[in-house]
What we know:
alpha/beta
Amino acid sequence: MKVFIALDASPHSARAVDFVRRIRWPAGSRVVVLSVVPPVANAAAWPFDPTTVTQAVLEEGRRGARVLLAQVAERLREAGISTEARLLDGDPRGALIEIAGNERADLLVVGSHGRTGSPSCSSAASRAMS
Protein backbone atom coordinates (compact mmCIF):
# COMPACT_ATOMS: atom_id res chain seq x y z
CA MET A 1 0.00 0.00 0.00
CA LYS A 2 1.30 3.47 -0.86
CA VAL A 3 0.20 6.15 1.60
CA PHE A 4 0.90 9.85 1.12
CA ILE A 5 0.76 12.29 4.04
CA ALA A 6 0.55 15.99 3.20
CA LEU A 7 2.31 18.11 5.81
CA ASP A 8 2.58 21.68 6.89
CA ALA A 9 3.57 23.05 10.28
CA SER A 10 0.01 22.99 11.65
CA PRO A 11 -1.25 20.94 14.60
CA HIS A 12 -3.69 19.34 12.14
CA SER A 13 -0.78 17.82 10.20
CA ALA A 14 0.73 16.55 13.45
CA ARG A 15 -2.55 14.77 14.22
CA ALA A 16 -2.57 13.26 10.72
CA VAL A 17 0.93 11.87 11.35
CA ASP A 18 -0.22 10.44 14.68
CA PHE A 19 -3.11 8.79 12.86
CA VAL A 20 -0.74 7.13 10.38
CA ARG A 21 1.56 5.96 13.18
CA ARG A 22 -1.34 4.20 14.94
CA ILE A 23 -2.46 2.18 11.92
CA ARG A 24 -1.22 -1.35 11.30
CA TRP A 25 -0.26 -1.16 7.65
CA PRO A 26 -0.03 -4.27 5.45
CA ALA A 27 3.43 -5.73 4.91
CA GLY A 28 5.33 -3.87 2.20
CA SER A 29 3.45 -0.62 2.75
CA ARG A 30 5.30 2.62 2.14
CA VAL A 31 4.54 6.08 3.44
CA VAL A 32 5.57 9.18 1.52
CA VAL A 33 5.55 12.40 3.53
CA LEU A 34 5.04 15.44 1.31
CA SER A 35 5.20 19.14 1.80
CA VAL A 36 4.44 21.71 -0.86
CA VAL A 37 5.97 25.18 -0.83
CA PRO A 38 3.49 27.58 -2.42
CA PRO A 39 4.69 30.35 -4.72
CA VAL A 40 5.13 33.81 -3.21
CA ALA A 41 3.43 36.66 -5.04
CA ASN A 42 5.84 39.34 -6.18
CA ALA A 43 3.43 42.01 -4.97
CA ALA A 44 4.23 40.92 -1.40
CA ALA A 45 7.81 42.06 -1.92
CA TRP A 46 6.99 45.66 -2.80
CA PRO A 47 8.73 48.17 -2.45
CA PHE A 48 11.85 45.97 -2.36
CA ASP A 49 13.41 44.07 -5.23
CA PRO A 50 10.77 41.37 -5.80
CA THR A 51 13.19 38.82 -7.23
CA THR A 52 15.52 38.93 -4.22
CA VAL A 53 12.79 38.96 -1.58
CA THR A 54 10.76 36.27 -3.31
CA GLN A 55 13.74 33.93 -3.60
CA ALA A 56 14.68 34.52 0.04
CA VAL A 57 11.15 33.85 1.22
CA LEU A 58 10.85 30.73 -0.92
CA GLU A 59 14.17 29.36 0.33
CA GLU A 60 13.19 30.02 3.94
CA GLY A 61 9.97 28.10 3.34
CA ARG A 62 11.89 25.24 1.75
CA ARG A 63 14.34 25.06 4.68
CA GLY A 64 11.50 24.88 7.18
CA ALA A 65 9.69 22.25 5.13
CA ARG A 66 12.86 20.13 4.81
CA VAL A 67 13.31 20.15 8.59
CA LEU A 68 9.67 19.19 9.14
CA LEU A 69 9.84 16.40 6.55
CA ALA A 70 13.03 14.98 8.07
CA GLN A 71 11.55 15.01 11.58
CA VAL A 72 8.31 13.33 10.53
CA ALA A 73 10.07 10.76 8.35
CA GLU A 74 12.36 9.82 11.24
CA ARG A 75 9.41 9.55 13.63
CA LEU A 76 7.59 7.21 11.25
CA ARG A 77 10.72 5.12 10.68
CA GLU A 78 11.13 4.76 14.45
CA ALA A 79 7.60 3.34 14.46
CA GLY A 80 8.73 0.74 11.91
CA ILE A 81 7.09 2.34 8.89
CA SER A 82 8.99 2.46 5.58
CA THR A 83 9.07 6.18 4.81
CA GLU A 84 10.43 8.63 2.28
CA ALA A 85 10.16 12.43 2.21
CA ARG A 86 9.55 14.75 -0.73
CA LEU A 87 9.43 18.50 -1.09
CA LEU A 88 7.40 19.99 -3.93
CA ASP A 89 6.83 23.53 -5.22
CA GLY A 90 3.49 24.87 -6.37
CA ASP A 91 -0.10 25.17 -5.27
CA PRO A 92 -0.50 22.56 -2.51
CA ARG A 93 -3.99 21.47 -3.57
CA GLY A 94 -3.11 20.83 -7.18
CA ALA A 95 0.35 19.43 -6.49
CA LEU A 96 -0.95 16.88 -3.97
CA ILE A 97 -3.71 15.63 -6.23
CA GLU A 98 -1.35 15.47 -9.20
CA ILE A 99 1.38 13.47 -7.45
CA ALA A 100 -1.13 11.15 -5.77
CA GLY A 101 -2.66 10.40 -9.17
CA ASN A 102 0.62 10.12 -11.07
CA GLU A 103 2.12 7.78 -8.48
CA ARG A 104 -1.08 5.84 -7.92
CA ALA A 105 -1.31 6.47 -4.19
CA ASP A 106 -3.73 4.23 -2.35
CA LEU A 107 -4.46 6.80 0.34
CA LEU A 108 -3.83 10.52 0.80
CA VAL A 109 -3.88 11.64 4.44
CA VAL A 110 -4.25 15.35 5.15
CA GLY A 111 -4.90 17.30 8.30
CA SER A 112 -8.26 18.86 8.88
CA HIS A 113 -9.01 22.31 7.53
CA GLY A 114 -9.35 23.33 11.17
CA ARG A 115 -13.10 23.35 11.49
CA THR A 116 -13.53 19.92 13.06
CA GLY A 117 -10.12 19.50 14.67
CA SER A 118 -9.65 15.91 13.56
CA PRO A 119 -7.54 14.47 10.76
CA SER A 120 -9.36 13.53 7.65
CA CYS A 121 -8.38 10.87 5.17
CA SER A 122 -9.15 11.74 1.63
CA SER A 123 -9.97 9.43 -1.17
CA ALA A 124 -8.89 12.22 -3.48
CA ALA A 125 -6.01 10.08 -4.68
CA SER A 126 -8.36 7.44 -5.98
CA ARG A 127 -10.62 10.08 -7.54
CA ALA A 128 -7.59 11.67 -9.24
CA MET A 129 -6.65 8.33 -10.77
CA SER A 130 -10.09 7.77 -12.28
